């Protein structure tokens, strides 16, 4: 068997591809062998039995590095391939270039992973250098994917940590365009679309505006969100967000009562770059006719209509909270908090707090999972060099454990330390509730006048 060097893309792709597919839990691959890896330029694939092909293709658009994973089925050799599942996979916002990192100089190892694929890995005195840049991993981004998915704002999402590359945190969102549905971005809305689906579009856009204000979502431009449409019947089903950016680090994510009310009524956002729905932050001279139409039809309305739209958005938001299943919380604990009573605002507020808590804890638990604690050759690669002890996922993607030293004064740089990153996430959740209460109280008080 020829050696595969650990700083080669072949080893990285093989280990990554196999472990990533396992993480999707779509197949019981642990017990069934793959066929040979097929590779052509930047496209490579695994054959899975005689009918299934799992193909990785480069991601062609977007600022983050990543790829598209297509799962295809081919019943007969003379039939065309049929996509049965698809994921868009990106590295977290601000990721660095790929390179191998976990083997020490002169380390050499041969091992088999559970599907029967064998590798021989060796690290020479490296002839290739890693390309690195300053990084700040922001836990708010994966947290928001979990939160927004639970509230049915974003498609199904999965996370994967590739410990064999630098900064190997990947976010996979399911492709919502399939045989039954297509995704229509806001930029593609026609006058006929608006005329035929005015009420649904109005409710959906104002709900998106509402949620973006309380969680301070960024980068909602007209390609990043839109509508799921029935492919055959051309019926608008619901709004979905396919991409966004988390708020930049701030000492506080709170908006004062005066700030959030003023911005809500004026259809503006804070001075944070690209916050909220993008067309509301742009002067009409920078918008095309579609953008102007959407802005003026659904947002630039008098105060009374703005409050009515806000009230309807609040009601829609409550329904989404009601529909969330809190499997992770003990039913007895929920009864103590009256979270099972769906008729009062107070119980829904408590349930929303629990949704935030669960989303936050999922990210913390993911970061604290340990690798290199199983007696397998491939796991040995992930242990701390020379110490032969396991490492957490947080360490493998670049976090330093504990709190930042006092001499690090730049708050953003302190987020490279896990305790500080966890504290930032705690603060963010508290401030979401603060913003939510301020906007909710204003809308309710003025709607009932």
Give the overall shape, derived from the CA principal axes.
globular
The percentage of residues in β strands lies in 15-25%
Distance linking N and C termini: 79 Å
Series of H and E elements: EHEEEEEEEHEEEHHEEHHHHHHEHEHHH
Q: If you compute it from the alpha carbons, what radius of gyration comes out, rounded to the nearest whole angstrom?
A: 24 Å
- SS content category: alpha+beta
Report the biggest beta sheet as strand number plus sense, adding barrel if it closes: 7 strands, antiparallel
Unreliable stretches, pLDDT < 50, 5 or more residues?
A: 1-9, 29-37, 93-134, 334-343
- On the 0-100 scale, what is the average pLDDT? 78
- Tell me the helix content: 25-40%
The count of DSSP E runs of length 2 or more, i.e. the number of strands, is 15
Number of helices, where a helix is a run of at least 4 consecutive DSSP H or I residues: 14
User: How is the largest sheet built, in terms of strand order?
Assistant: 2-3-4-5-6-10-9
> What number of domains?
2
Describe the structure in your own words:
This protein is of the alpha+beta class and 449 residues long. The protein has 2 domains: 1-133, no CATH class; 180-361 and 427-447. Helices cover 37% and strands 18% of the residues. The chain has 14 helices and 15 strands. Strands 2-3-4-5-6-10-9 form a 7-stranded antiparallel β-sheet, with helices on both faces. β9 (157-161) and β10 form a beta hairpin. α4 (198-215) packs across α8 (303-323) and α8 packs across α14. The longest helix is centred in the C-terminal third of the chain and has 30 residues, at 418-447. The radius of gyration is 24 Å and the shape is globular. The N and C termini lie far apart (79 Å). Mean pLDDT is 78; it is low at 1-9, 29-37, 93-134 and 334-343.
